[in-house]
Structures are given as C-alpha cells and as structure tokens.
Request: fold
Amino acid sequence: MAYYFYKNDKILLFAAFIIFLFSIGFVCWNRCRMRRMITRMNQMLESAMEGTFSEKLFDESVLSSLESRLVGYLSAAMVSSYNLKEEKEKIKELIADISHQTKTPIANILLYIQLLDEQELSMENRQCIKALYKQAEKLNFLIASLVKLSRLETGVLVLHPTHLALKGMLEEIQIQFAPKAEEKGILFWVEDTEEYAVFDKKWTEEALGNLVDNAIKYTSSGGSVWISVESYELFCRITVSDTGIGIREEEYAKVFRRFYRSSEVCEIEGVGIGLYLARQILLEESGYLKLSSKWGGGTQFSVFLPR
Reply:
C-alpha cells in the first residue's frame, strides 16, 4: 500500500512538473507573441506618422484587422486634412478680399470728409462732419482689427518669435503714444531696460500698443501711465500701469472677450477688441497676459514673454 501511494505521488509530481514547464513555455511564447505584435504596431504607427504606411497582412489575424482599420482611418484623416487645407485657403482668400475691398471705400470716405471739412460750413454741419469722421475712423480700426484676428485664429498669419532686445520696441511705443498722452495731459514714461526676450517684434508691439492705448484712454487728465520691465529666470515681464479708473474684480475675465464694453465706460470711445487681440498675439508666441486692478485705483497689465 505504501508503495502504491509513493508511486502515485511520483506520478503527480511528474505531472505537476510537466504542467509547470508547459506554463513557463506558454508564458514565454505569449510574451514573444505580444512583443512581436507591439513591435509591429509600433512600426505601423511610425510609418503612419511618416506618411509611408501601407497594408501588408491579408489574413484574419488581429494585426491584419488592425492594419485594415488603420488604413481606413488614415484615408479619412487625409481627406479631412485636404478639406481643412481647402477651407483654410478659402478663409485666407476671404480675409484678403475683405481687407482689399473695404480699404479703398473707407479711404475715400475719409478723403471726402476732409474735403468737406475744408468748405465753409455752418457750426451744425461741422459738428456732423466731425462725428462722421470719428465713426469712419472707428470703422477703419474695427475692420483692420477683425482682419488681424481672423488671420491669427485661422493660422493664416504665423508669428516668428526671435531673441531680441526689448529696448527698441519700447522706444517705438513711447514715440507712438507720447503725443496722445501729452494731448490729454497725462504723464507717460517708459523705463529703460537692457533685457532680452523671445518675441515677434511687430505683433508684440501691436499687443503692447493696445494696452498703452487703453491705459491712456481710461486715465483722466493729470494721471500717469508708465511701462516697467522685470526679469525672471524663464520670463521677462513688461507691465503697463496707469492711475485710471480701474476694473472691477468681477469683470476680470469679461474684459478679454471680443467686443465687451463695461457699462462703467460705455461713454468712452472704443470697440472692445484690443485686449482680446493682445492676448491672442501673446498666446501665439508662448507668452501670456496678466491683469491686476482695483476699482478706482488704477490697472496693471503684465505681459510675460519667454526669455
């Protein structure tokens, strides 16, 4: 009887050993199979990204099914990409047409207004001419801003940030806005700096110009507007500060919307697009815009540009 149990134990032990070896073999085979599949999938994805993918397996395996699905997806993606490119070209042409077709009529309107202003007119008519001129200028600014926005948002216009000194750009801002500040009786100055940053000069100047224009517009006579620069490890900070009316905290997010005008400043000329445009420009060059203000206590708009 003892011999019988001993013999059965040996058989069971041998069977367990065989099962153990089979399990190890199955695990190794399965891992190799999975590794081959992952390697093949990786090759498929790499060739798909390079645009050289083609279907190679024509059986009923999982990889063959995956290749078929990937071929279908890439074909649809290529069609979508082509359609998107066509739409982008149409938008580009539309923007160019709008810009071209509106430029001449507005220029003519302004010219005729100036010619009328040179004639002998009654005080009432002269007031009408003045109002007409202001509205034509406002329309001209609005169309120009919308064209710029459309180009930025559709990717038609691409910014080219380069490593530049801030000084030249800030000097041009000072030259551009000093007469306007002086006319309104506002003290305007720009802090001297030797700092560098990575930015697109033309469009960053446009963004800063919008901030300075707003600061002068919403600051009363006798107030101050100034630009300061501070350097950090990763960013350069250009801050446009004023002693104007300020912005209520609940309106911080709203002022960056297109065409938003606070009820507090509705009597002041403006279209509500400058801040939105400034923020879009800065986002395009990996920068950002920060607002700090207190109602009745002035405003600070800080432009952060990567160094």
